[in-house]
Automatic annotation (TrEMBL):
Biological process annotations from GO: dUTP biosynthetic process
Database matches in PANTHER family: DCTP DEAMINASE
SUPFAM superfamilies according to UniProt: dUTPase-like
Name the record gives this protein: Uncharacterized protein
Species for this entry: Candidatus Kaiserbacteria bacterium RIFCSPHIGHO2_02_FULL_56_30
Matching InterPro entries: dCTP_deaminase (IPR011962), dUTPase-like_sf (IPR036157), dUTPase_trimeric (IPR033704)
Length: 187
């Protein structure tokens, strides 16, 4: 698997809508191999009880998500709210942009160093081929001080890996950028 170069990523953004909702900076003045994504909204977990069941003889296990509440969201225009993350607080954050992952690419997302330099831990995973929607991550403050993030701030960088061989497209519960869910069967 190899990393896709920035010129090819930009071409696919323009011609195939690989990423939509970009702020323009990454298309007009890209650098490196990835595209920066911005903080679009944040949710706080307001009710626990999450459970992920193992697969058994009856098939795939069940899962139960947490209940979340949106605390801030990117607005149209230049004036944006701040997300203030107190020490120890945890949020589910979502990108302003939407990815439309084709079956020949696998995105990996990395935090921008400005986050961990401020004491924030950004929790990310790979994105499967075939996933379409905004991306959701965990974000917590490990420092002893509050950290302010303005909505629309660049928080992570997405890098695309070229896949060789067969894939099975994403078909999970979070397709489309869904934050949380009640009890349901795993897919």
């Amino acid at each position: 698997m190899s990393v896709v170069g920035i010129k090819e990523v930009v071409r696919r953004i323009k011609e195939e809508e690989l990423i939509t909702g970009l702020d323009g900076r990454d298309l007009s003045n890209p650098e490196g191999t990835g595209i920066d994504l911005r903080l679009g909204c944040a949710h706080k977990i307001v009710e626990g009880g999450a459970y992920i069941e193992a697969d058994g003889a009856a098939g795939l296990g069940k899962r139960k998500g947490v209940k979340t509440e949106e605390v801030c969201k990117l607005k149209e225009g230049d004036v944006q709210d701040d997300l203030v993350i107190a020490p120890g607080e945890y949020y589910l954050v979502q990108t302003a942009e939407t990815v439309n992952t084709p079956l020949d690419l696998m995105p990996m997302v990395y935090p921008r160093s400005s986050l961990f330099r401020a004491g924030l831990l950004f929790l990310a995973t790979k994105t499967d081929p075939g996933y379409k929607g905004q991306l959701t991550f965990g974000l917590t403050n490990l420092s002893a001080f509050p950290v302010r993030l303005q909505l629309g701030a660049r928080i992570c960088n997405i890098v695309f890996h070229k896949i060789e061989g067969d894939v099975i497209g994403y078909r999970g519960q979070h397709q489309g950028g869904r934050f949380s869910h009640g009890e349901e069967q795993q897919v």
